[in-house]
Amino acid sequence: MEDISHIPVLKEEVLFYLNCEPGKVFVDGTVGGGGHAKAILEASKPNGILVGLDVDEEALAVAQKNLSLYRERLILKKTNYAKMKEVLEEIGYEKVDGILLDLGISSLQLADPKRGFSLLQTGPLDMRMDKISSLTAYHIVNKWSKWRLKEIIRQFGEEKWAGRIAQKIIENRPIETTTQLSQVIASAIPKKYWPRRIHPATRTFQALRIVVNKELENLKQFLNQALNLLMPKGRLVIISFHSLEDRIVKTAFRVWVEEKKVKLLTKKPIRPSREEIAQNPRSRSARLRAIETI
């Protein structure tokens, strides 16, 4: 596979809020191509440890290559971050000093049309981060009822044209490719109502990806165990890319603060600078929140 470096979003902010120092143990729950992981390993040298998790085998292979200089301080595992507790127990860590989740789709996944994540490049309707999963975007698009399609597009895409889009999808079945689907979706929305900053199919693609990969369920499952995985004064840093994820994170953090279990490090979400957005346009919707355990 082509070696594409993962451009880490909010890299300096991640290092600051994780409080990266030598001798600490960190988990990158969404290691991707290893961009954040490399920065964490550098900031925690000579003896900081990083555990990197990802469900995507191809991403892990790239991370292994990109992080080869740090192999003595690196443990990579193919698993979903929702199973972090099990993985840490398996490798002998009860608690760690810091955990990072970068919930955005990786550059690696978007760059490969065969994965089916990009609405601008023709590829199969796949969208699975873990290739052994059975549910694909193709199955949802071509097999699910109009009502069910409308519900997931409305709920997980926050798309007000969900009903029209679902109807157009039904009318145009079978839909085989990403570009075919994006054209069908665009045709369902009157041109004068197309969003200015994003492709008209973006929200529907988001909805499909969330459902295929159980993204919100995994986030909630992780948050239920997160505090038990952190040392006292341990840090949890989460970068989200849409309001559904951010709302879940914000609510969990608020509850923990009220219960006096954590200290909130970010009163408002940290956003990328204009300079970062110019260098990496995909970072524009990133929001970072962080807490420290008491």
TrEMBL record:
It is an enzyme of class 2 (transferase). Pfam families: Methyltransf_5 (PF01795). S-adenosyl-L-methionine binds at G34, G35, H36, D54, Y81, D102, Q109. Keywords: Cytoplasm, Methyltransferase, rRNA processing, S-adenosyl-L-methionine, Transferase. It catalyses: cytidine(1402) in 16S rRNA + S-adenosyl-L-methionine = N(4)-methylcytidine(1402) in 16S rRNA + S-adenosyl-L-homocysteine + H(+). Its EC number is 2.1.1.199. GO terms for molecular function: rRNA (cytosine-N4-)-methyltransferase activity. Signal peptide: none annotated. One of its GO terms (cellular component) is cytoplasm. The keyword Nucleus does not apply. Specifically methylates the N4 position of cytidine in position 1402 (C1402) of 16S rRNA. HAMAP family: 16SrRNA_methyltr_H. PANTHER family: 12S RRNA N4-METHYLCYTIDINE METHYLTRANSFERASE (PTHR11265:SF0), S-ADENOSYL-METHYLTRANSFERASE MRAW (PTHR11265). Belongs to the methyltransferase superfamily. RsmH family. This is Ribosomal RNA small subunit methyltransferase H. It comes from Desulfofervidus auxilii.
